[in-house]
Amino acid sequence: MKIVLIGIQGAGKSTQGNLLSKNLEVPYLSTGHIFRELAKEKTKLGRYVKEVMNAGYLIPGKKTLAIVTEYLKRPEYKGGYIMDGFPRTLAQAEFFKDGADKVIYLKVSDGEALKRLSFRNGEGREDENPKAVAKRIESFHKFTEPVLDYYQKKGILIEVDGEKTIEQIHSEILRKINGDQ
Ligand code: AMP
What we know:
Elements: E1 2-6, H1 13-24, E2 28-30, H2 31-38, H3 44-54, H4 62-72, E3 81-84, H5 90-95, E4 102-107, H6 110-120, H7 130-154, E5 157-161, H8 166-177
Helix pairs in contact: 1-8, 6-7
Bound molecules: adenosine monophosphate.
């Protein structure tokens, strides 16, 4: 099963993604994680990615597409994946054509996400500075909300209230994936 997780930063995508991965025995993949690893490299690309990430911007252009395509060629993703962080723009969604069987939107208000992130602050993620977080929330509304519409029209969008407990959200996702509304 090919599952895509969408939500603003702080919505709980990686928590739910990892739970789903265990439960469904499908590997979890996060483009944010890939980029954070890339940002550690002392190369031109590494320094560039770090700068863009820390400012809270999306990595522009074809770079993301090339990286995702490359990863998904690996044998472990043949049987499906839980994808966190991609697609985030309409262009990426159109490129990803048959990449998603189900898309889960973890709906959390901007205020709740900011509250969660302020608790998380200081746990070491350099790209979670307040300015970058505000920028990311802004780009979610501008670039990623159209992706929700795109999947809604395709009939594969599942909306979940991301403000419940971790366990409640997890079981709601499982129920909805199985088609029991
Ligand atoms: P995340 O951990 O998903 O919040 O991603 C962290 C950062 O990685 C984002 O703020 C972007 O700079 C970059 N990134 C992750 N996924 C994408 C994507 N699909 N398109 C462009 N940039 C991305």
